[in-house]
Specification:
- The complex is a heterodimer of chains A (about 120) and B (about 110).
- Chain A is an all-beta fold and about 120 residues long.
- Chain A contains no helices and 11 strands.
- In chain A, strands 2, 4, 5, 6, 9, 10 and 11 form a 7-stranded mixed beta sheet that branches. In chain A, strands 1-3-8-7 form a 4-stranded antiparallel beta sheet, with no helix packed on it.
- The radius of gyration of chain A is 13 Å and the shape is globular.
- By secondary structure, chain B is mainly β.
- Helix content of chain B is about 0%, strand content about 55%.
- Chain B contains no helices and 11 strands.
- In chain B, strands 2, 4, 5, 6, 9, 10 and 11 form a 7-stranded mixed beta sheet that branches. Chain B has a 4-stranded antiparallel beta sheet with strand order 1-3-8-7, with no helix packed on it.
- The model of chain B has no long low-confidence stretch (mean pLDDT about 95).
- Classes of the chains: A mainly beta (about 120), B mainly beta (about 110).
């Protein structure tokens, strides 16, 4: 059974940094499409960032230049380095994996990020 | 940027049948959009119900089905159960949008 387990969330002051981690089992991070999706309180789902199997990365305009997505193939894990955090980055962040654009998505349980002074 | 539309809220009676739709503001939804449907219950992560427009995931009950209907993607629930009360999101793939576009979600009430 595919499992994606996030960690690293927490309470951080505006302007601070956090690194989210996503450990995968029964799913190979390096050979599939991995992404981060967030959900602000009471709101819908929003793409944050993604990385293709070949290494190409994508970012939402709202996080471009502040967030960096990367993976560790040996640890079979995905990461999101978040810098210059803002109050509007407050959300639950989900790690998501998929085999292809037509396949189902596998979701982690989410990790809460709260940006507040 | 494509806008994906869903009904904000829908109510169905227990045992009843309901169809949720997912449309695009810019074009008809076709099989090329590889529609996915997700169910999210309060305090839980989303989970995939349907992918590639019509295909159920391994854990998806048979009472859920996906289709195309009148230029939109559709999720039909036949024989609604109390545990089906949740938020439902669709996701459409577009060639010019990495990841695709999420709909705003439909809150389904079973009452």
């Amino acid at each position: 059974e595919v499992q994606l387990v996030e960690s690293g969330g927490g309470l951080i002051q505006p302007g601070g940094s956090l690194k989210l981690s996503c450990a995968a089992s029964e799913f190979t991070v390096s050979s599939n499409y991995m992404s981060w999706v967030r959900q602000a309180p009471g709101k819908g789902l929003e793409w944050v960032s993604a990385v293709y199997s070949g290494g190409t990365t994508f970012y939402a305009d709202s996080v471009q230049g502040r967030f960096t997505i990367f993976r560790d193939n040996l640890k079979n894990s995905l990461y999101l380095q978040m810098d210059s955090l803002r109050a509007e980055d407050t959300a639950v962040y989900y790690c998501v994996g998929e085999y292809s654009s037509s396949s189902g998505l596998y979701w982690g349980q989410g990790t809460q990020v709260t940006v507040s002074s | 940027q494509a806008v994906v539309t869903q009904e904000p809220s829908v109510t169905v009676s227990p045992g009843g049948t309901v169809t949720l739709t997912c449309g695009s503001a810019t074009e008809d939804v076709t099989s090329s959009h590889y529609t996915r449907w997700f169910q999210q219950k309060p305090g839980q992560a989303p989970r995939t119900l349907i992918h590639d427009t019509t295909k159920r995931h391994s854990w998806t009950p048979d009472r859920f089905s996906g289709s195309l209907l009148g230029g939109k993607a559709a999720l039909t629930l036949s024989g609604a159960q109390p545990e089906d009360e949740a938020e439902y999101y669709c996701l459409l793939s577009f060639t010019d949008s990495w990841g695709g576009e999420f709909g705003g979600g439909t809150k389904l009430t079973v009452l």
